[in-house]
Amino acid sequence: MAAVDCDMPVEPESNIPPQEDLEREAEIFKEKGNAFYIKKEYSEAFNYYTKAIDACPKNASYYGNRAATLMMLSRFREALEDSQQAVRLDDCFTKGHLREGKCHLSLGNAMAASRCFQKVLELDPTNTQALQEHKNAAALLEFEKMAEYGFEKRDFRKVVFCMDRALEFASACHKFKILKAECLALLGRYHEAQSVASDILRMDSTNADALYVRGLCLYYEDCIEKAVQFFVQALRMAPDHEKARLACRNAKALKAKKEEGNNAFKDRDYDAAYQLYTEALTIDPNNIKTNAKLYCNRATAGAKLNKREQAIEDCSSAIKLDESYIKAYLRRAQCYMDLEQYEEAVRDYEKVYHTEKTKEHKTLLKNAQLELKKSKRKDYYKVLGVGKDATEDEIKKAYRKRALMHHPDRHSGASAEVQKEEEKKFKEVGEAFTVLSDPKKKSRYDSGQDLDDDGMGDFDANNIFKAFFGGPGNFSFETNSAPGNFFFQFG
Fold it and tell me: pLDDT > 70: what percent of the chain?
């Protein structure tokens, strides 16, 4: 009997389950995934579909199911990859093509989406979902074209409108969100623009476009130093980012020129400051907030140079750019005061006080109202031709000069009309002297109080004249041979 060779090699058992077992296990995972999907527990559904794919990686429907789950999780780029893998495995997989198209549409690629929906319609001409999505893709393309045209024409409101409509179809398109945010910034709606850019940066901190928009908002809010940091970061992420490069250059130039102007003003070189602010205003017409400050700064320099009319214009330009700019209202009001345009000054101070009810603003308003009230009376200082700080002697000298100039006897040979006018002026001179030569009346007059109770309507200008020059018989007017030459002689 032959001996058994106990050392003969034994065939090892394989640890790899048969294909049928793998397929059966994959189906179990898929069914579990479907159950979680129905309950909207998409993360769990994703895990089980992934297990199904690991067990059976050649099944197109598993990729399709996982793509659907990823879409519900708003992970459209991953969903797009799964959809594309599904149709690579099965080119007749209608749902795969449909999901690929939806992913392209959500990501803003309308052309690619249209091709996918067209493929679905070739496979199933009656597919109503594909028909509707094909129309959506066409609408998205139209909104893109309208937005592009609007941006070229600087119609930023139209661009925002188009992007809002486009994002209804392409909710995950960063490009559309960035364009909307940029236009919001250009419209001065900085908070909204920052919100959009910040949302993108939370998902992708290296997004150069979002960094650029964030910087743009800071730049337009006159936070130029911080803005430059964002522009530099955007250029680090995308060295060819032209918008960030231009904005960075403008921001640096604007900051430098404004600082030069400020330094010149501090050094009391007002001509240089005025010129530097003028140059700064040409750098970027779109930077509303900074330009408003530049106009106000130039107005301040202009006021120092006695260019008050131009200063008022500059303040008005600043206010037009920024209606809440209190400093511009205050500067303009002071210029109006200097030009004795008190009604305009009161209007500006009222605006300031209603906005910021401070003690200082209340005092400024009251002073302007007082000057307005005083301006509606006779200006006795102007009548005598003296300043408001004139001394007693200066007031007397001024009265002597004006009283002699307008005395009726001096114009006895003139026409009746001239005589009447000079008599009126003579009376006003006497009235002015009566008030300004009396400390009590002068004080009341300067404080804006009414003088009607002091018997101003009953005074006699001739009596004042006689009292000033020493009584009747002490003066007479004579003429020499040249017409218009008069001499006053004391008796």
Answer: 90
